[in-house]
């Protein structure tokens, strides 16, 4: 470690007291060059008492100065020498420990001794031990006898090819970088992502656990059938109860054996590792004894006679001599065989009909390698449960009574046999190829050892299985091969009859082999579960990540023992084998898929050292695994796939988000790129059009979402379909607001998550808000996945704002969306919109279809009603008819149009007759233009502004006089109140509110009020106002000039503004009358004026149009049809 010194000045009188404590300071950060502090300057003097001490470090100090150009980056970017030193000292982590790239800060690293295991000890022998096991010793002879040599050889070749292709794919993945402990789970999860990794990892865990059950059941079968058959707890009183008693004995002894093995694993894995070599030696000796016995049969076949009655094989453990009668002292005596078929030992006894008609024959069960029995064993002998084991070429006279007495000592099938069952039972014998990769953390060079050891182990065991199939068929009689439990050879293990020097070599060897394999399963499965739990991708499994102080997975061991007990309670080796075959096949399938995906994607990080792979081999292996799953058992395959699918969806929904650079993500990126390129070739058809939203959010001072209900509306409108981009703008430069932008983005994402809005979030920093929103409207999205609709909230406080930026930004946004041919949705009173938890039980969604802009007005209510919030609301469509329109025909046409659009809605046509412009409209326009004039004057200097305000005040007072009669405001409720002027010179905000209409009531109540002309002192009662309107309609020759006599200043108004205000007032009056109680009102949004000088008037028009309505959604189409009547 480099040493850093701090030179402290010492007074002469304190020199004796000074020590070196505090002078030497150790630099803890190896990545930062040493920095020294000196008492006087940065260069040590020759007279310094420490000059000789720092000479040793001086060279390093000046070496650091050679890299002074990069010294500011040392904290984030270490020197290459430091990086290489860390990589050189890197050791694979022990199983279950957090991986190096996910190492949590604050945890002290413990240096472990580097692993020393090589290819032979670390990979080859463990794979051999796991592959060669219970199926070889207990079921392979029965498989050969039942399926025949040819079909058995085909099964072995098919299964071994599957594992070899999987091993090639696994080798490519294992050599593509460092593989910490975790084995196949680590490889799959890091290649296919946490969802696939968790699903397949749990399937592999279940397969390993059920493998433990199978090995324990094999151990108990060997113990109770061949070693100590008298140790059975349950003894069958009748022949019918033998199978039930056997299953119960398996359950009892299996549970005890499981408890004992679990205790051994709990006490210490080191004992299991020490015993593993002993168990492996037993396997090797057993296989050597088999081959020695095969060779011996060619020279001197062993003596294992079997007894045949006709062509039926007999169980010969209850009699010694294969004959009906025997001559003793010139007298004929019956044998024990006679007693089994007859009701008395006398010659005149009543015997079984088949026993009487057929003779007894004794043949050799092991005729030998050169006997030619191989020709008889080439073909299969499938049959139902209870079928007798017969020698086909033996003479036999059928009995008259075809019924079979189960109490007779025949050998028969205990289960129905067929090809797919044989595949399911055999496949577990080739599993175990992951044993080497599971020990990757203990290997000296995992990238070299895993491919070599695994492929050599598979090649060796494949050769052993293929030769055993042929040799068993060539040496052993067919009826003996089909005798699963060796009843015809005096309860000997069938494969043991072939062994040399004694059958007990195979019995003892297979017993310890099954014990060792069971212990290995109970050791590996809990650690696999612990690794999955510590990854945190499955929340409910996190408890199994804990263990003892030394890291042993105690809780995972208990879970494993519980699942293993389920397999033991099944109690049948033949039924457990297909279950674990499913889980292993699914694991192998996804290993091949991972390799194929990574190869086809060609990601830059895909650089395996193992070069003998190809994506076609991986696809072939994947297809073979899938085929074998359905060949073994189609219903087990479906169950296993459903389990994996449920786990996948659970992790996707509730699991922790992990970014492991997996292949599925890369595949998604490639698919997205391909789809985007295809989308950009042509614009979407009207049938495929849906609103792709760009949501413009406003943030508060704490960078939180100001209007979260805007996100609720987005969710209700989209229902997770299509594109949603939620964006906002921060005013400033990105260099200064980078951190705030990230914080704001996180806040927006949190709000999106709480409101269940699925989409993308983007917060940008811009010099001003106008440019920021403009850039978002232009550039948001990618390729064909761009937004076509902009959603924003209505700037409700635009009148009270101190500046004009809010409403100017709003109008510019409207103009830009129109120019970009994008639709625009503006929500007024957005905070009053329902949340996603609300349920609107009744009400209507009212659509006011005034102008046709592509049909978006009719599409939006349909989309909203797909969401549960709006589902019970009814849809109403209002259309406005003018004087020249036929409203009856118009309603019929609209109903037909909706029918062709497949939309259910009530239709109503509202007639708006031509009428004169009311006094209220003129007053409203006058106040609006006076306010606009005041806003323009806000740009003048202070003095000029004060003079202008005074002149406007004088002019206003001369034209608008306040009513000063007693009770003028409170005592005359039926009089029209002219908007008053408030002049305040204190602040700029009050000046902006110089002329306002705060006291102006809604024009919906205009008919209930009277108007007062300050010039003529006339009172406009309700009756007089109606009479005046009727008189105006009756006298068309009377112009508006007479009305101007009432208000001389009305004559100077912009008539275009008056007409627009008239439209807004009249339309609002109709909308409020019809839709004031609606849950939502959708209105056509008029476009902004082409002349920017009237922007503030445009805001006033919209305000009047929406006055008196609770929830309003202004809709402006994008200039294209979005809904069609065609299919």
UniProtKB/TrEMBL annotation:
The Amino acid permease/ SLC12A domain, residue ranges: 123-295, 412-694
Boundaries of every SLC12A transporter C-terminal domain copy: 824-964, 1059-1127
Spans traversing the lipid bilayer: 119-140, 152-175, 196-216, 222-238, 250-269, 275-294, 410-435, 455-481, 555-573, 579-601, 613-637
Reaction catalysis annotation: K(+)(in) + chloride(in) = K(+)(out) + chloride(out)
InterPro entries to which the protein is assigned, alphabetical: AA-permease/SLC12A_dom (IPR004841), KCL_cotranspt (IPR000076), SLC12_C (IPR018491), SLC12A_fam (IPR004842)
Subcellular localization, as worded in the UniProt entry: Cell membrane
Molecular function as annotated in GO: potassium:chloride symporter activity
GO cellular component terms, semicolon-separated: plasma membrane; synapse
Keywords: Cell membrane, Chloride, Glycoprotein, Ion transport, Membrane, Phosphoprotein, Potassium, Potassium transport, Symport, Transmembrane, Transmembrane helix, Transport
Membrane topology: Multi-pass membrane protein
Comp. bias regions, Basic and acidic residues: 942-958
Protein's GO biological process: cell volume homeostasis; chemical synaptic transmission; chloride ion homeostasis; potassium ion homeostasis; potassium ion import across plasma membrane
Keyword match GTP-binding: no
Region described as Disordered: spans on this chain: 28-47, 939-976
UniProt record similarity statement: Belongs to the SLC12A transporter family. K/Cl co-transporter subfamily.
Name used for this protein in its record: Solute carrier family 12 member 7a
